[in-house]
Amino acid sequence: MTERQAKTHFLENTDLSSILEPETSSSRPAECKVIATLGPSCRDVETLVAMMEAGMTAARVDLTWGSLEYHKQSLRNLQQASQQTKRMCAVILDTVGRELMIRRDFTLDHEGWPVHMEGFDIKDKQQVTVTTDAKAEASSSVLPISYQHFAHMCQPGDTLFVGRYLVNGADQSSLYLEVKDIKGDDVICTALNDAHMDGLLTVIHSEREGDGMSSLQTDLPLLTDYDEQAIKTFIKEFEIDYINLTYTSSGMDVYEMREFLDDNNGENVKIIAKVENLEALHNFDSIAGAADAVILSRGNLGLDVAPEKTAVVQKAAINRCNLLGRPVIITRLVDSMAEAPRCTRAEATDVANAVLDGVDAMMMGAETLRGKYPVETVRTVLAICRQAELAFDHESHFDRMMARAMQEDEDMMLDSSHHHGDFLSPPGGQSPDSRAAAYARPVPETLEGAAKAVSLKSTEASGSHGSPADNHYVQPGLPPVHPRTPPSARRPGSSDGHTEGTSPSFSASGPSQMGHARFSGSSNRVSSFGSLPRAMSTAASLGETAAAAESRRTESSMSKVESIASTAVRAAAKMDAGLIICYAGTGRTASLVAKYRPNVPILTLVVPQLRSKGLAWELEGRSLARQFLIMRGLIPMLAAPMQGAGDSLLSQVLSAAVKRGLVEPKQHVVCVLSVRGDLVLNVCQVDEKGSGLKSNLASLGSELNLTAQQGNVSQHEVALSF
Ligand SMILES: Nc1ncnc2c1ncn2[C@@H]1O[C@H](COP(=O)(O)OP(=O)(O)O)[C@@H](O)[C@H]1O
Ligand SMILES: C=C(OP(=O)(O)O)C(=O)O
Fold first, then answer.
1. Which of these, 543, 638, 539, lies nearest to 86 by C-alpha position?
2. Which family does the UniProt entry place this protein in (predicted)?
C-alpha cells in the first residue's frame, strides 16, 4: 500500500433498514465539538442558552468585523448563558491578521453591529481599480483596499479574489480579477465574472502563475494594531482560552504569537493556527508542531487548492494532526443553513466524512454569525456527527496511530537529518518551511515573488494595516505593527513532567507494549497540548544545533505519558469500560488519550490549583477545562478549588458522570491519575446504584488515599461543574 491510499471506511453494518431506524435517545455527548461564531444572529442570552443546550461548546469572536464594545457585549452575554446553563464554553478570539479588506461605508445597527450600504454590481470583463488611495470610495469600478502597500504586492498576471466575509468562493459576491497594470497606488484589473458585491468584502491576492505559491499577503505583519489592542483588552477583561491566528504561514508565526501572549498576561491562552493557503500547507508540520490546535479554513483554502486535491488535502492534514495528537478543526460546514433550516445533502455528507476522517471540531461561520438558524445549525451538525461517530472505526484508528508512531520513530532513527514534514512539497525541492527559514536568511532568489515580498517588510513597519476594513477602531497613539525579530528559539525544555515508574495497579502489557517502547513524542517544546516527533526538523531549521536536535529526538522517542495514554484506551476497549477519567494538569495527558480515539468519553478532571503570580495568587484550572472543549471525546469537569481527593472525589465524579449519562452503574472506568507524582493507570467500577465508586476496590482506594494523605488535597465535599 502506498502512502497516498486512504484507509477505507467499510461499514460492518450494511443493513439499510437498521441504519434508518430512529436513534434511541442517547444522553452521551457527541465526540466532536461545535464552535460557533458570535454575531448579530446569536449574541443574545436566550439564543446562546439554546445553542449551548444544543451542544455548542466553544464560541468565537471574530475581530475582522465589529467594534470592541460589540464583542465585549457578546462575551458578557455568553458568560450569562454559561451561568444559566451551568455549562462551560470555551472563548476564542480570531485575529484580523493578514486579512485584506475592501473599505466601504457602513452604519451601525441598534446593537452597534456595522452594516454596509447597498451593494453594487460588477460585470464580466469590465475594468475595476483596486486602490490604496485612502480618500477613494467603493463603487462598481473602484475598490479601495485596507492595506497601504497592496499595490507593491501585485504585478500584471496576478489573480485577485474579492469575496464576502465568511462566504468565500461560493456565492454571488465572489469576484475574480486579473491584474493588468499597476499605476502608483492603483492596481488596474479586469473582472473575470459577473458579481454582486455585498456586505464586508475580503480580498485574497491569489495564485501567481508559474511559481506555485499563492496568497502573497502572508508577508504582511502577523497582527494588526487593532488585534494587539483587542487581545490585550480582552485578556484583561475576560477569560480568553484561545487565539485563532489568521493566515498562519509557518511555525515561526506561532512562536511570535506565543511571545506576544506571554508578554501580555496571556500565558494561559492557547494558540490555534489557521491554515488558509498554500504556503501554510507547505509548512504544515512546523505550524502543527508549534500550535496548540489547527484550523483548516476550508473557504480560503478552497481558493488555493484545486478542487481535485481538496478532499485528499483535508484527509492528509487531519491525519497529520491526529498523529501529532493535535486538535484539528474545520470550517465551512453547512453554509446553506445561513438561509435554510435544512442543510444540503452534500453538506451533510461532508460533515459526516470529516468525522470519519478524524476531525476534532467543526467551526461555524456565517451560519451562526448572521444566519437565520443558529440553533438548528448546531443541532444539525451535532446530529450528523453523532451518527458518523457510530460508524467511526475506533479500533482501526487506534491501530493506525500505533503503527504510524512506531514507523515514524523508526524513520527518525534511520535518518534524523532528513526532513519528512510536508505533504505538499513545492516544486524544485525548496525548503517547505520557507518563511521560517526566511527569518534566518533571505528567501531563495528563485522565488521571484517572495523576494519582492520580503523587500516589502521594511516598508510595512510604517505601513497602515491597522483595523478591520478601515482605521475606525484603532485607538490613536498605538504604535505601528513592526515585523518582529525572530523569537529566540525559546522553547521550554521540559520532559514529560512525570517521574518514570511502573503503575502499581495496571501494567502496560500485550501488543501495545512494544509500540509504547518505541513511541515518539510527548516532549513538545512549544505546544502545551501535545507532542511533535518531528519538531526537531523545525528546530533545526531555526538554527538549533544538530546535537541539540538529536538529544530532543532521543528524548522524544521515550514517552511514558503517551504509553500510559494509549494503554488507557486499549484497556478501556478490552474491558468494555464505559468511561476514561483523566486528571488534567496541563492537558498533555488528556490530549494524548484523545489521540487514540477511545470509543468511550474521556472525562478530563481539572482540580484547580492556587499558583503565585508575582505577589498575587491566582486559581488556575478553569481555562484549561474550557480548552478541552474543542477536542474530540474530551468532557471536562471542574472540581471546586482545593476540595476533595482520593476516592471521595472520584466517587463524586462517578456519580456526576452517571447523572450526565456518561457511564452506567456497574460499568468499569479506566483512570489516568498520579500517585506520589508518578503517572499511573487504574481501573475502578461504578457501584450498583450509580452513586459513586464501588467500595471493594481496595487497591484503587488505597492508592488514592495515599495521595490524599500527602496533604495536597483534602476530603471535603466537592462541587463539580461540566
Ligand atoms: N489521585 C489524584 N488526586 C488528586 N489530584 C490528582 C490525582 N492525580 C492527579 N491529580 C492532579 O491532576 C493533575 C494532573 O496533572 P498531570 O498528571 O501532570 O497531567 P497533565 O498531562 O495534564 O499535565 C495534577 O495537578 C495532579 O496533582
Ligand atoms: C477563514 C475562515 O474560514 P473560511 O476560510 O473557511 O471561510 C473563518 O471562518 O474564519
1. 638
2. Belongs to the pyruvate kinase family.
